Each structure stands twice: as C-alpha cells, then as structure tokens.
Amino acid sequence: MRFPEYDRLDAVALASLVARREVPASELLEAAIERAAARNPAINAIVARYDAEARARAAGPLPPGPLSGVPFLFKDHLAAWRGHPLTSSSRLLEGWAPGYDAEVVRRILSAGLVPFGQTNTPELGIMGTTEPSLRGPTRNPWDRTRSSGGSSGGSAAAVAARIVPAAHASDGGGSIRIPASACGLFGLKPSRGRVSHAPALGESWSGLDTNGFLSRSVRDSAALLDAVAGLVPGDPYAAPPQARPFLEEVGAPPGRLRVAFTREALFARTTAPECAAAVDDAARLLESLGHEVVEARPVFDRDALVRAYLIIVSAGVAAEVADAARLTGRRPGPGTLEVETWALACAGRALSAEDLALAELEIHRGARQVASLFEGHDLLLTATTALPAQPLGALATRPLERVAMRAVARLGSRKIMEALLAAIGARSFDATGNTMLFNQTGQPAMSVPLHWTAAGLPVGVQLAGRWGDEATLFRVAAQLEAARPWAERAPPLT
Fold first, then answer.
1. What tens digit of pLDDT does each residue of 233-289 get?
2. Which candidate, 261, 284, 278, places its Cα nearest to that of 387?
3. Which pLDDT score, from 0 to 100, does residue 417 have?
4. Catalytic site positions
5. Buried b vs exposed e over 197-236: b needs ≥16 C-beta within 10 Å?
6. How far apart are CA 112 and CA 55, in angstroms?
7. C-alpha closest to that of 117 among 167, 184, 59, 162
8. C-alpha closest to that of 79 among 96, 103, 95
9. Alpha carbons 420 and 409: distance in angstroms, whole number
10. Is 155 helix (H, G, I), strand (E, B) or coil?
C-alpha cells in the first residue's frame, strides 16, 4: 500500500513531512484515497467523496501551518461546505447544498488541510449510534458487528481505520466522546463558546452542541482546536481566551491535580463492569503520576436534567426540521424523516415556549450544582459510556416506543408526548448516559482510550474540567498518552 508510514503517523507528523518537502501533500492524499477505497466498504464511514477537488487543492499552494497538507474529512452534519451536499443523513435534506462555508469549515481550509469527503452520521445527529436508514450503519473497525458510536460514528470509524489521522466531529450529548470510546480514539468536547457556529447559527440545541474533532493523538486534537477556536462577532457565547496555543499545552507539566472519580453512572442507571474497571485503572494511573485522586461525584437532580435535555433536543429538532423544510421545499413527515426524528420534531412542536424556558433554567441550575464540585477538584473522572460498544441494532427504538412515537406524530397529544419522554428518559441513557451532563454545563470533557476489554474492544474514560479550561485537559491527556501509549493499537481492519 502506498506510503506505509501513513498508518502510524499523526496529522502533525504528516504535516511536518510536507513542510520539510520530504513528502508532497498530493502523496498523502493519494495514500488516504487508497485506504478509503480499500477499507471504507467494510465499515461505511465515508458517505461522499470529492477526490478530484481534493487533488486540485493538494497540488497547492496551501496555507502554511502545523496541519497543512493533511488529508481530512468533514462530518455530514453542522459542517456546511460551500457547494457540497449537507444532508445530515436525512431524506428531507438529501441533495441540498449550502451556498456558504461554516466558520469551522472556513478555518479548517485556511489551516491548509485537504478535505476529500464527508462522514456518516445518524439522522440530524440525534442518536448515540450511527445507523441512519438513508446511508446504512457505520461498523466499528474493532468489531464490525458493533456500533462505532454516534453521532460522529463515521468520523470515528474513518480515523480508527487509519483512513485519515483526524476528522471533524460535533457533540450535542456525547457525539465526540461516545464514538471516541467505541473506536479507541482521543476526543475532546470543547467548552461552550470555544468554537463558533457562524454564520448560520448562533447556537445549536440551546448551547448544548459544539464542533470538535476525533484523532489518534492528543496533539492533533490540540492543533485542530487551535485552528478553529475563536469568537466571531455576534456569537452569543464566548469561552475565556486561552493563555497560549493548545498545542503548547501538550507536554506541559500539569502540576499536582486533585481528581475526583466515580464508578457510578451520571444519567445511566448502572455501569458495566468493564467500564467501571476502566475508571479504576485510570484512577490508579493518575495517582501513580502524582495526582491526588479521591472518590467523589457531583450532586444534581438526574431526572430533572434528563427531562430538560429531552425537551431542549425535541425543540431543537423541531426547529431543524422546519428549517430543512424551508430550505428544500419538501414536506416533513414519515416519508422524509425516520420515525424517531419525526416524533421528536412533533414533540418539540407540542411543547410550549414556557417548557423550553423552564428546561433552560433547569440546566443552568444543574450547571451551578455541578460547578460546586470543581471548587475543590480540578477534574472529574468517569467512564465515558456506561456500556462498551454495543451490537448494531441494540440501541434501536423498541416496538412499543415506536407505537408511541407514531401516536405523538399523528395526534400531537401532550399526554402521550409526556409519557414518551418519560419512557425515553428511563431507558435511553443506559448505554451513553455519562456524557450529556457536560453538554448541559458547557464544560470541556474528553474521552481518553486507556482500556480494552478481554474481547479486544476499546473502552474510554471521561475527564471533565472547569469551563474554559481545556488547557488542563490537554496537559493531563498528554501525560496519560506518554504513560500508556495507545496510538500503536490498531483494529483488525487495518
């Protein structure tokens, strides 16, 4: 296979080869295209390709920078790329192409990366598994019978399969961290306000959602966040300015930190033994590195925050569906949307402005409760997910839930909608319920691939920091990466 070193080098290392003129960007792109052709059919991670356009871009000249010349992929959600279809895996948006670049896309292009495709996502980025009816499931490169996570499962599978060293992702409830855990990658959700949603959006899902990246190395995610971070005039939120580039935090001493840890789930009901074991192992590793590690967890009203989360997501999906219908002129309904998406949109339409305002008040109240833990602790360690990567189909909606969803969509009944939200809240976070809390609080949180099961499945641990303090997370992540290197572990697919 062309340029065999490609599989083991991260984006920063590849870019340095281009900068030193040892390897042209065009050769890196051909290596990525060759691997996409060989590996993608087995996992269905990439759903759109633009090879000719990428070849023209790689031919140069490219803007200089620590990532210039590196092949790249955008998630087919939130990353509006001028002239390229942005479907979010929905028939309602199929074929629609924006006439502008999202700010995150503009900055990626300005950093000299070379995008050549888009990755799979569940419809409108809603689910914690990537199994859309439009494109079919993305399969986990570690075990192709299992989910790659969601909603950035396509990006995660492509990075784990060594097609690209890093890829765009987004996170409204764990959509960076869940697939990072499932696919053995590093993934950091930035603080609210760190990455702009301009120009089309001020916020997404009442501030829950943010753009970010999935990578095999910590420094790649740091360099990518440097490339896209920063306020755009008119943004509704602004994270505290970073003291220096995040790339400079990688390898910087973190000092002796006070780390709280819990094996207990945050929104899920229980934690699987393998996930609890990953937490215990990470706690011992952090202690061996000189940190003070104590057992503690934030106190908050779980049921109130779950309900608030579902209300905000329902309202956000209703708005997205209405906007998509406006853009395409298509009629939203069972013929253009999956039943879960249509039910959430109908639930959002049945909710009142008061419901949404009260849900936002609830998450702000919860954020202050959670923040109190960080007055005496620098970090919180949990399992990223409450279960290891699940078999494809395991997270599908149950038959009775689908009946209720159709009833909500058909009747618009407030009573049925309330029962449906209660049912979803009782069950749907059992696999992925540790990540949503930090979308609500706006804090940065990362999944670090430190553990593998006896069956060879990766299991991540989550570390959350104070709002605006990605620097500490990058320092600790680099320390963990040096102590327990993971990048050489590759899935059977490669």
1. 999 999 999 999 999 999 999 999 999 999 999 999 899 999 999 999 999 999 999
2. 278
3. 77
4. 75, 151, 175
5. bbeebebbbbbbbbbbbbbbbbbbbbbbbbbbbbeeeebe
6. 13
7. 167
8. 103
9. 11
10. helix
